[in-house]
Amino acid sequence: MSTPTLVETPVLSLEQILEKMMGRKIAEAMSNKSSRQQSMVLEEYSFSLEVMAVPLPQDFKQPKMEKYDGSSDPVDHPMSFVDLMRLQATPDAIMCRVFSANA
């Protein structure tokens, strides 16, 4: 009677899995697109995989802030945003994504 052999399958990290998934998603979006459309797809993924991999907390509430209009200190605006986000204990990666969506 022979002993069954174990087949070793490579274990991928979450980061590797996300990288493969994002690569497929980008490749799908890029196929059959004009160069203008391709540049729009690439702009959609402007953050690193590490930033994109951080899930949005379930109880996350986006802070209500007016867009910066240039009439006040340019440092005060992002600092106010960070202060509001810190009240919710928001991870830095989420702050990056949310701030860019509000900028």
From TrEMBL:
<protein>
    <submittedName>
        <fullName>Uncharacterized protein</fullName>
    </submittedName>
</protein>
